[in-house]
Amino acid sequence: MHRGERLTFIFSLISLSLCLAGTASPALASGPGGGDAGGGLGERLPIYSGLPFVGMLLSIALMPLFMPKFWHHHFGKVAVFWSLLTAIPMVAAYGGTAGFEFYHVMIADYVPFMILLWALFTVSGGILLRGTIRGTPAVNSFMLLIGTVLASWMGTTGAAMLMIRPFLRANNYRGNRSFMVVFFIFLVANIGGCLTPLGDPPLFLGFLHGVPFTWTFNLLPEMLVVVAIVLGMYFLLDLYMYKKEGVTPPVEEDAKEPLRLDGSLNFVFLAGIVGAVLMSGLADWGSVDIFGAHCAVADMVRDGVLVLMGILSLCTTATTVREDNDFTWAPILEVGYLFAGIFISMVPCLLVLKAGSKGAADFVIEAVREPAHFFWASGILSSFLDNAPTYLTFFSTALGRFYPGMPESLAVPRFIAENAIYLKAISCGAVFMGANTYIGNAPNFMVRSIAEEAGTPMPSFFGYMFKYSIPVLCTTFVLVTLIFFQ
Q: For the residues of 120-160, what is the DSSP string, one character each?
């Protein structure tokens, strides 16, 4: 996307947000933060209001295959098209109530989302692992294991951004690298984030709703089973491909460069990012009103700290480090453009889910009864929608079913004590199955963009699903269901 097209895209988003803010103003009296209005709107929306979101997904899936040149130059305009096709009819039909929902998702969700991604992308791009690492099956498996462990403590996005470039450089002499990056997405960008609320947004949301910080350690058995199966499958596949290719590392033993880190100060900035995210969940400093959107002061402070960490990284890291790290802004720009379209076009879907049994998706909510149902329902929807609100939808559904009318502060401890298997199912589904598609979790798309920029061809949207995630992950999840969620 050229500079002029970027400006057109940004101007379109700003104009859309300002228009929606203006249309939203008369409706703000309906409730704090528009929550009540959103719930009522979700009860009125038809199921076909989600069609633009389907169009957005199909565009991401099919246009790179059948219209690659058009997509490469105009994907930002495609995102704007589906955004407008979602927002304009809804605002015309439901007025300020709908306008507020779109405005709120941009201010309260999209902007913080992109600030976090930008900060992690910027800081991790300033950490360069120099030296000779050759991607043998054993070395690759070990790197994936390290990234998987890190993901729960610095977030799946942070771990993925930190590890992907060294992983790609270690395998730059290999012929078939696509499957390596796919398994990297499986393990580092998703599965590894299930042990703490810092690992993945759904678990952090659960923490904010009363789930103890250390409770997610109880997901260790499920994680170990999934990691053992997926990492074991990766090792066997990599071993097979390594022998089939018959390649040898191009660097002789006596020419090996010792390993060393450049830009290690960025680890301090990474710690600052993790600390700021944790602080925003613990601190309660009230909220401020931004054109009707109630934003927590702690969240605003967090975003300010994240921006500061990114700026400090840019100011203190030598330009040569980023250049040698093959750092460019293209991946984060692509994610920003496409996820703007995704966030806006999925608003009707999330509102319908939020309405629960009173909305057009009542057949989904009512059909979810057993732990296995919660695991697969939260997982499948998290594969295509934002996994954080999907988690919260089924979390609230389970609380309402087991403890109707009970305040959340009282219901959550009882839920954990008496029906923890349901919370495990919801948590594992939301975290694990974010790996099922490129859009299931933000780092998936970022890893894909970085890999393609580095010269590694990646499978298409459907190729990723039918060649890898369905045969590898879904079969693994069936086994997890039989072991843990019967």
A: HHHHHTT-EEES-----HHHHHHHHHHHHHHHHHHHHHHHH
